[in-house]
Amino acid sequence: MGVHIQNKIRLALGSVKDHASIGKAMIYNHHDRKAFSDIEIAVLRATGHDNGPIGDKYMHEILFLVSNSPGSIPFLAERISRRLCKTRHRLVALKTLSLIHRLLRGGNRCFEQQLRSAHVSGHLQMSTNSFRKCSDPWSSFLRSYAAYLEERVGWAINQAGKLEPVMFNGLEFGCYEEKSVDMVFRKLPKCQAFIDRVLDCSPRDIVPVADSLAQAALVNTLKESFQVYIMLCDGIEILINMFFDLTRPARALACDILKRASRQSKELHDLYETCKRVMENKNLEYPNVQIITMDHVLALEQCSSFMSTSTSTTPPPLSDCLTTLGKESKKEGNGDNGPSSSQFSCTMETKISKVWVVFEEDDGELQVPMAMDIV
């Protein structure tokens, strides 16, 4: 009962603060700054202290005001950052982070690029310092979600509606080239960094998973992770296909990427299974996570080592490496000093020959013709 009363008091105080902030913004609503003041008011209303999710009308209002006010995106970014930095209320912080996420997902390409540039220039900051010293599940979730958005801001939605990584070049962001060595070694680490941030947002033992706002944030995060995971799988396939054509340092880097992918595949599988159990949204189309075992990576490493020490220009097939690993492990397990049985590992096969061979004995008589040939 006492906790319920405290929550009501905090909600009432938060509502008073919201009205005071909105009233202050209206006082400075001069004619030449009317559009900016309207943006600030819309941000305050979208991130109020109430328990409800962000209303679509506030999202539409913000996008409308920004699209009709040139140069207003840095101002919008500053007001969002200020709201997040000053609040001590977890719901307001989560709403502000969710607002950033929805703006990244809901704007057009030009708007996303300007918002991304605002983050690079420092106008948009996703600091959760107010909750850094707290060890409760809520604060931990907020920090993980903020770290995810820090990574997410480096991705854009392409014309096909899919996420793709972007790289910073001056004040412009260019897409990676497709199906090239440079793409693989720059795009795969980007995908893996994204997946790591998703794994940190696991709902396991996190209280706000029951909250509708946290559910919405997790759903959007999971949907985006599905796309990035598929991209990661495609990149891993390209990397393996080109593995034996790489230089020795590049193969070592490829093995490091594959080792990280091996860890992530297991953790991502566990995360999706957990979300299937605890998430209320059962309509998510989870991908089938293919777990990469460390044995596969070690086999590639042994092949790479063999190529580095061998004078042969033809690399051994991966299947041969796996077979060699199995034979060596069996040999080590036997522990005998006798000759290896691998010298006689060829199989004897019996075939019926159609050629009749006639043998003569010393006395000139014919022997029974033989029609069996051992090969």
Automatic annotation (TrEMBL):
One of the Pfam families matching this protein, by short name: ANTH
SUPFAM superfamilies xref list: ENTH/VHS domain, GAT-like domain
Low complexity composition-biased segments: 308-325
Start and end residues of each ENTH domain: 31-163
GO BP: clathrin coat assembly; clathrin-dependent endocytosis; vesicle budding from membrane
SMART domains: ENTH
Keywords noted in UniProt: Coated pit, Cytoplasmic vesicle, Endocytosis, Golgi apparatus, Membrane
Gene Ontology MF: a single term: SNARE binding
Subcellular location(s) of the protein: Cytoplasmic vesicle, Clathrin-coated vesicle; Golgi apparatus; Membrane, Clathrin-coated pit
Name of this chain's protein: ENTH domain-containing protein
